[in-house]
Amino acid sequence: MQLSSLATRNVLRNRFRTIATALGVAVAILAFVLLRTVVSAWTEGAEYAAKDRLGTRHKVSFILSLPLRYVAEVEQIPGVKRSMGASWFGAKHPTREQEFFATIAVQSKAFFEVYDEIQVPEAQRAAWMENRKGAIVGRVLAKKFGWNVGDRVKLRGTIYPGDWDFEISGIYDSQRRSVDLASFFFHYDYLNDSVPARRKDQIGWIASRIDSSDKAAQISKQIDEKFDERDIQTLSMSEKALNNSFMGMFAAVLGAMDLVSIVILLIMMLILGNTVAMGVRERTHEYGVLRAIGFLPRHLASFVLGEAAAIGALGGGLGLLLSYPVVEKGLGRFLEENMSGFFPVFRIDTSTTIQAFVFATLLGLIAAAIPAYRTSKLNVIDALRRVG
Amino acid sequence: MTDEKKTGTGTNGSKMIEVRNVTKSFVRGKETLEVLKGLDLDVPEGSFDALMGPSGSGKSTLLNLIAGLDQPSSGKVVVGGSEPASMSDSARAQWRARNVGFVFQTFNMMPVLTALENVELPLLLTKLPSKERKQRAQIALRVVGLEDRMHHYPNQLSGGQEQRVAIARAIVSDPKIIVADEPTGDLDRKSADEILDLLQRLNREQNKTIIMVTHDPSAAERATVIHRLDKGALAQN
Asked: Are the beta carbons of A388 and B56 separated by less than 8 Å?
């Protein structure tokens, strides 16, 4: 037997309380891991962006338009291989309005050159090019709505009011994780021809493929300088920077998630602290006996701390065991399939795993600090409750 | 006369415990309670002494001072040539671990440890290797006649057996003295007699100096010397 045996044996002394506390810690760790994974997956989404693709938008805001003619001018800039105008269409399924998916009008002739990671069978691609009302949809979206190639579908416009008719020309897929497989792309010309004169020849942004990722900053600067003296100025950046600036809008949400993670850990610490304090109170007499037979205050403190760390580690381990199936197999798979644009990779980071386990153990130690200190200061006679 | 001495003590004459003019006071709120009042006591090595007296007479307080669990308000307590009150808290704890074996009324076993592990407990404070600790604990259990119960947990033992395990724990580190506070207080007559037989045997065969607090006159009869305390002083006959 070793000194540590006493601490670990005491962990299982009140099995129900230990299991309940460990489960409480486990649930807190599960919530912590989930939130940390949301934050890291969300942030990491930007990392999966193509490094040789630039985005150009209105200098003031995402929601303001650029003139269509800018696309050709951007394409003239040295280093730009191909440019494409696009507009956020913002339509909804007429009967399933709660289901969100991206609907984007794109200049289809340049689309597959700018987004070469999007894969559509050759015949479907050709059919799309031929069909003015044609659309290509991601594999996940097609599965969700039960759409097949050749289906005629009607979408309800929000930014561009009215019912819009489309025909599914192709279903796209991709090997790259950053590609959202739940989007709906259709011809910009169809949109442009259908809107009133005052909304014609307007695009939301320009996506450009460049010949070298090393020149991204330099080419972005050249694009913006070109329009510097115009009425409408631009702001260009790499796709990654564009994603990051988009993420910036959610900074408050991510900050709140971080805060909630900390609050969860604090709650976990209080649960642990309460359990340890109860155990210590119940064993005061035993600690008195140990002190009487020669154990030192530091021995008692280490018993208390060891017990708390063991419960924390037990709960932390249990929480991580729960986290992997829940976060990766359950929620993660769903998010990767349905929101791959935001969460291309929804997996628990190794750093999150380590953090969760270390925090669970460490917070156990912190929670036990006061009971451990009090135990070490115990008066032997009082603890033994012997009066002459 | 303060003490009742009996023949055949088996002592070798040298003092194991020397209590000189000891007072002990406790402050309770605004009141100061003087529990021991200038008490003197000598216990020779190898003696088996009983402390008797009514509740509140100071016998457990005296036992605590001898065992180095508490310090006198004034006076001197010397045990085996050392004065525990002059030591730091840590040094006193280490001194207790080496020199004093404790037997309590309520046995005070660690319920999560087996009999063998409970007996081994004081040896964890030594540098002995694990194998030797275990061997010594087994020998101590053999001495108290419980070698066959070494893997039992306290809740699988009778009260008498638990107290015998407690005695094994008290002797495992081969201390000079054993202090026993009402060791038979929670036991039936038969178990109590077995415990007293055991204490007597340890006194006679291993020359352990034993100080026992008891209310039980028949338990006190087993001691070689009986000290009667009353109101913080040794009673005069």
From this structure: yes
